[in-house]
Amino acid sequence: MGNLKQSLLAGLFSIITIGILTFLTYRTEFGIFLLASFGSSMVLLYGYPESPFAQPKNVFFGHLVTTIVGLLFLNFVPLPIFLTIPLAVGVGVGLMILLNVTHPPAGGNPIIVIIGSVSFDYLLNPVISGSVIIIIFAIIVNKFILKKSYPS
User: Fold this and answer.
1) Structural domains of the chain, count
2) Contact (CB, 8 A) for 54 and 10
């Protein structure tokens, strides 16, 4: 029964968190707050908050580092897309591990950045602002509502 409760709560809080980001993106003039990889972040933040990969430092800097890598490859590496995407993902993953900020969902960010040909503004919205919002929600939910030791 514990697994059922955990899965229902993870689903519910994912709906709420992604719902807020979606509302901010589509119903306000504040900009873009959604990043596809945030959906995967929900799995860790609400399903497995005790994981080192779900800690705020990893969530924030994992998304930030891999997005920066994607932007650098998009703008400064003049190779065909079939080469820039795997190189950017590899460098992003390698840097997350090297810097001890591994957040697996962020591994997809270079793909999103390169395929979407996003600008450097993407760092502020959705990456930084969205990451801060999902981290705040994860702390509120895990620490104060579910009474878990989060961040650990």
Assistant:
1) 1
2) no
- Residue 55 DSSP label: S
Phi-psi label, residue 21: left if phi above 0, alpha if psi -120 to 50, beta otherwise: alpha
Q: Tell me whether residue 8 is in a domain.
A: yes
Task: List, for residues 93-136, the tens digit of each pLDDT value.
Answer: 999 999 999 999 999 999 999 999 999 999 999 999 999 999 99
Amino acid identity at 76? F
Within its chain, how far is the Cα of 148 from the centroid? 21
**Confidence (pTM):** 0.96
The boundaries of the domain holding residue 43 are: 2-145
**Higher per-residue pLDDT: 86 or 152:** 86
- Alpha carbon 3 to its chain's center: 24
